[in-house]
Amino acid sequence: MAASQLIIDTDPGVDDAFAISLAALSEDVDLLGVTTVFGNVPLEHTTRNALRVLQLCGRADVPVAAGAARPLIHPQAARAGHIHGEDGLSGRSAALPEPERDIEPGGAIKLLVGLLEEAGEPVTIAPIGPLTNIALLLAAHPHVKAKIDRIVLMGGGVNRGNTTATAEFNIWSDPEAARRVLVEENVPCVMVPLDLTYKCAVDAEWLAKLAAGGPIGAALNALTPDYLASYRRSLGWDGIVLHDAVAVAEAIRPGILRTETYPIEVETSFGPGRGSTLVDSRLPGLRGEGEGAGAPSTVQVAMDTDVDGLGEFVLGRLTR
């Protein structure tokens, strides 16, 4: 069976590092490239972190290109250094190996277009940071939509937020870009929201198995102290939430997450709901009544999974 083709768009970030490694170490994945975006930390750091994580995994063959350094329209109000560390990797990015490969000239959009045009079959894209690069790609190069199998993104929430009461960080960082991708573009999307990623949190025992599972697992575990401290406060126990790795698991193995198809909107106002994903889970007969004409955009929203099975899948790939 041919390996599935995948591109990751990312803002590493501890959970991004786990997600990149998950794809890079999976023999059934043809990781075509990695593009970086601002998000958890500035673009300079996210790009360097992506290069170093790939080097850790022995994947200097994977091209990396730097993308958007800021949102489409409005400045990003805050970053997530208080969760991921000021360098994005708990202050330990320098402990990863120096990359043998430099970034690709021309930037992320050029790399994305080239990889998609050259692909012999439709490609899965896994955006696990703000959706700025993907919005720019689809707006400037609409012909590549035919080469995209689906977009599997980590972002949003059905009944919760993390940056605000209702908004998840990736969507909140550039709501205008998120709306363009999720609402305005006709590309199949799977949204992996906070509601599910929190269900998939891993505990100290899982992290101990990761650390004991080989040099890559040990190196990844060593990146988690700041992240672990943050989630100890929010979870109430020793563990971390591997948000982005949950989405990449679905990109690698379609169906590992159970999805439901719902109409969706993204709030781009400057009120308290900015950056919220409005998932319309009403019964079909109740949707849209009195709300104007036009069919709403629909997205596959990941709602559930075999949590233990998913944890074993990720751990197995990272320690094989």
Automatic annotation (TrEMBL):
Phosphoprotein is among the record's keywords: no
Coiled-coil spans in chain: none
Entry-linked InterPro entries: Inosine/uridine_hydrolase_dom, IUNH, Ribo_hydro-like
Domain Inosine/uridine-preferring nucleoside hydrolase: 6-309
Source organism superkingdom: Bacteria
One GO cellular component term: cytosol
Any one of the GO BP annotations: purine nucleoside catabolic process
Keywords assigned: Glycosidase, Hydrolase
Gene Ontology molecular function: purine nucleosidase activity
Protein name per UniProt: Nucleoside hydrolase
